[in-house]
Each structure stands twice: as C-alpha cells, then as structure tokens.
Amino acid sequence: MRSESMENAETRLTKWSEQLVREGYCIIPDAVPEMLVRQLDEELRPSFEATPFCEGGFYGSRTTRFGRLLARSALAEAFVRHPLILGIAEEILAPWCDRLQLNLTQAIALHPGALPQLPHRDQDMWAGETGRIEYLVNVMWPFTDYRADNGATLVWPRSHGAAAQAAEPEGDPIVAEMSPGSALLFLGSTLHGAGGNESDDVRRGMIVSYCLGWLKPYENQWLAYPPNVARHFDPELAALVGYRQHRPNLGNFEGQCPSILLNDRIPERIGAIDALRPDQQELLEAYVADQRRRS
Q1: Are residue 102 and residue 172 in the same domain, yes or no?
Q2: Per-residue pLDDT tens for 168-198?
Q3: Looking at the domain assignment, is residue 228 inside a domain?
Q4: Using CA of residue 162, residue 208, residue 61, residue 142, what is the dihedral sign?
Q5: Do 16 and 111 share a domain, yes or no?
Q6: C-alpha closest to that of 260 among 237, 235, 286, 294
Q7: Is pTM beyond 0.90 here?
Q8: Cα–Cα distance, 242 to 237 (Å, whole number)
C-alpha cells in the first residue's frame, strides 16, 4: 500500500511542477530548514569575503560570485539533491533528455549600489531551438531576505516557452521577495534578472541549476570536481555532476562510463562497452541477429 507521505510528496511535486509550467516560475516556501541555510551561508562566508568583485556589466561590478560549492561545503549537497526540487527538474526536463545533469552551483552577493541586471533568459547560452524545448531549471536559494530594495530577483510571469520568442514580454515583472529556507524556481526560457540593491545590506544567495544531460553545462563540472574530489561524493551526486554517460555513449571515457575514474584502481587498458537507450538496444539486437542469420 502507498503511504500517506508518498502521496503527499507526489501531490507537492505535481502542484509545483504544474505551476512552474504554467507561470514559468514558482516560489516554494520552507523548502529547507532556515538553520541549514544559515549554516551553509556561514561556511561560505570566507569565500564571500575573499572573492573580488566581478568585471563586466552582466556579472555586475558590485557583485561577487563563486562556484564549485559542492567542494566548498558538504552542506551544499542537501540543496543540490533536494528530493522535491530534483523531482520537479526531472519532470520538466525528462521529455528532452535521457538524464539531466547539474548545470551550475554559484553563490552570489549583491552589494549596496549594485545596478539591476540585464533581463535575460538562460536558455540563450545555447543556440538551440526555442519555444518548444526546455533546456534548464534554475533554483535560487536566498541566504538573506530577498526584498525589493536589496535586489530580489525580478521574474516576468508567463514569459517562457513560446512566449520567449516575442520581442517584448507582456506585463511587468514580479519581485521574488522571500526569506531563507524558501526556493525560487524558474525555467531557462523565463525572462528574469537581479534587481538593483538600493539598500545598505548585502544580498546573498545561491543559484543551483539543472540542464539536459546532452548539453555543455555552464560550469565545467569535470574541472570543478575532478576525479580526486568526486570520488568522495555519493555515487548519485557524482553521477549528477557528470560521472555518468548520457545514452547513447555520450560523455564516455575510453568507451565506458566516466565513473570508472572514481575507482581506486583504473585499468591500464579499457574496453569500450555499449551504453544505449532501451529502444536503441532493441533495434541493435534485431539488426545483429539478422546479420548473424545472413552470415
């Protein structure tokens, strides 16, 4: 029999996935305990303090950013592998890929005087078809209160999907005000941008994003988490950051799953092994069987 907790989890997954598809964004309150957010913020504090301001109008000259959060704090895994968030990302992206992957983890601090960010769509980093395919799901985790005056993210509702092909979005953006523990999700096709920080406070937070497994991710995961780092990850986390093939055979190492690099001993010679989708495997087996009958 199905447990009440399983049914409740499925209900939440359906609710937030439907809102994300309908509006292009959603804000999930109390997604994680506030204390966990405070602890992660504190562990990243040395990096926030040591990282210089960005250069360029997009990243922002009054903004600091740094990545590789899974290597900087073990607490980041709870956010990256949040069951509800991952479930939503898989629901959105599964029609377009065999497996999704981690696209980015990035901590962001908007300092007083930071200008509003250019409104943009993250899907534009890839020159693929627009209006039908969703390439990306973003998750903004606030470390401090996000308010209108300190640069809370601006999101244009229903600017996603086919609407992303319009020259100008309809309507005004919403200000994604929220407190630590909440999570803002928005699609890669949704128009958005950081607001300007007109307060005396530093607005800190973290972006975690997931993309189709056959895309080149925004953050080079294999450089961010080389084998000597990733071998200490849980196998599912290692797979999410790229130590897993995307069938058929994409992202392989010497013809095998790159997770082989996480073993204590790596064979000097490696034989290639097919990694195909079920439909491809069925087609291949039928072809091989026919060839053997003919020989």
Answers
A1: yes
A2: 888 899 999 999 999 999 999 999 999 999 9
A3: no
A4: positive
A5: yes
A6: 235
A7: yes
A8: 9
For the cut 90, the answer to whether the pLDDT of residue 1 exceeds it is no
Please tell me whether residues 139 and 267 are part of one structural domain. no
- pLDDT at residue 138, as a whole number: 98
Buried b (16+ CB within 10 A) or exposed e, 201-226: ebbbbbbbbbbbbebebbbebbebbe
What pLDDT shows up at residue 109?
A: 98
Amino acid sitting at position 285: E
CA distance 203 to 198: 11
* Domain shared by 204 and 275, yes or no: no
The residues pairing with 100 across neighbouring beta strands, listed in sequence order, are 212
35-57 tens-digit pLDDT = 999 999 999 999 999 999 999 99
Q: Does residue 108 sit in the same domain as residue 157? A: yes
Contacts of 139 (CB under 8 A, 6+ apart): 79, 85, 183, 184, 185, 207, 208, 209, 210
What is the chain's mean pLDDT, rounded? 95
Record the tokens describing residue 103, joined without a space.
């696209």
Note the pLDDT tens digit of each residue in 243-275. Answer: 999 999 999 999 999 999 999 898 889 999 999
**Structural domain contains residue 240:** no
Q: Is residue 105 part of a domain?
A: yes
In the listed set 172, 190, 219, which residue is the last one of a domain according to the structure? 219
Is 166 within a domain? yes
Residue-number span of the structural domain to which 262 is assigned: 258-294
